[in-house]
Amino acid sequence: MLLQPPAGASLAAASNLDVHVAGAELNAGAALARLGGRAALCTRLGADPFATRVRATAEALGVELLAEADPQRPTGVFFKDVRPDGLRHVYYYRSGSAAAALGPRDIARVWSARPRVVLVSGLTAALGDEPRRAVESARTAREHGIALVVDVNLRPQLGRTDDAVRAVRSLLPAADLLIVGTDESTEIFGTRRPADIVASANSAGCGEVVVKAGADGCWWTDETGNLRHLPSLATRVVDPVGAGDAFTGGYIAGRLSGASAGGAAWLGAVLAAGVVANVGDTAGLPDRAEAATLVQRAVAWRAGVDHVLLNCQSGPPPPPSHPNLHKGAL
Predict the structure, then answer these.
(1) What's the rounded Cα separation, in Å, for the pair 202 and 183?
(2) Dihedral of the alpha carbons of 137, 171, 242, 39, in degrees to the nearest 10
(3) Is 56 helix (H, G, I), strand (E, B) or coil?
(4) Rounded to an integer, what distance in angstroms lies between the CA atom of residue 280 and that of residue 17?
(5) What is the pTM of this model?
(6) Whole-angstrom Cα distance, residue 289 to residue 34?
(7) How many structural domains are present in the chain?
(8) Residue 52 has pLDDT above 90, yes or no
(9) Helix axes of 243-256 and 288-300: crossing angle, nearest 10 degrees
(10) Which of 114, 137, 170, 310 has the fewest CB atoms within 10 Å of its CB?
(11) How many whole angstroms separate alpha carbon 253 and alpha carbon 263?
(12) Is 89 part of any domain?
């Protein structure tokens, strides 16, 4: 649950707070579901009214829940303060929450669901020792015939950044797709330079790498080994929260639909642009009719030569990505 003051107010002075359901993986799943896919979120919730609200919101977003109710622990909560300068400060109260008890045993629900792709992130790994072990256990995805997508998604405000970094690094050899932002890449690879990030990730065994850079767009590697760049498609920025999650969901949906890496990046960028133009993590997602058209355009998308940034073939070639990522159907 996310609680935040109304526009123009602060946590220190507000007499009432707006209540929302929020979460990176839920946002990504909502984007994929809006694009015609089937998405589910594996988590743990308390046996409380907040859990009821989370379940209702997930259902409205088209995201199934693989969630157990924990009568001993509450549903997690965090607070967001928007300062007059536009900067956002987030305060997490997740210690002792139901999701902080998520462990490797919960991942059995994922394997039983038989998804084509499982998405994990460094955010979950920062919730505690058991969540970190749950994230690390996802490295066995290929043994279950499932592609593994790793979204680095470090959240320093949660603390335990070193644990999250170690968990992400442990997954690199098993990652069929790595999504990493230049604002967090130094923690993992020691560099913010896209070409070096991709080369390091490929050397570690990642099958496919996408580098996000916010207002500077994103980078991906085409089938010939060229590193290509797509500028940001945002024309209006109201609230940047959720944009990266929308990109992640859009990229995965594009690849599952048979789009090239470039087409998937374009689809993710379109969704991210819609989200930043609206208040709320998912408010800017396209309606289903527009979403279907966007998926068709992503599958037909072709990169122009003007998008070639540089050639990355001086390093080792990327390992092949999991066939589940490009079978051509959600």
Answers:
(1) 19
(2) -50
(3) helix
(4) 15
(5) 0.90
(6) 10
(7) 1
(8) yes
(9) 60
(10) 114
(11) 10
(12) yes
- Residue 299 has a pLDDT of 93
Domain assignment present for 96: yes
Q: How many helices (H) and strands (E) does the chain have?
A: 11, 13
Please choose, from the candidates 235, 193, 232, the residue with its C-alpha nearest in 3D space to the C-alpha of residue 215.
232
CA 12, CA 110: separation in Å to the nearest integer?
A: 40
Predicted confidence at residue 49, as pLDDT, reads: 96
For residue 73, tell me if it sits in a domain. yes
Q: What is the mean pLDDT of residues 114-122?
A: 95
Residues β-bridged to residue 3: 19, 79
Comparing CA positions, the residue from 14, 15, 19 lying closest to residue 3 is: 19
Its domain, for residue 42, covers 1-100
Residue 199 lies in a domain: no
Contact present, 54 and 68 (Cβ < 8 Å) = no
Strand, coil or helix: 67 = strand
pLDDT digits (tens, 9 = 90+) for 151-186: 998 888 888 889 999 999 999 999 999 999 999 999
pLDDT in tens, 55-80: 999 999 999 999 989 999 999 999 98
In 191-238, the DSSP E strands lie at: 209-212, 218-221, 226-230
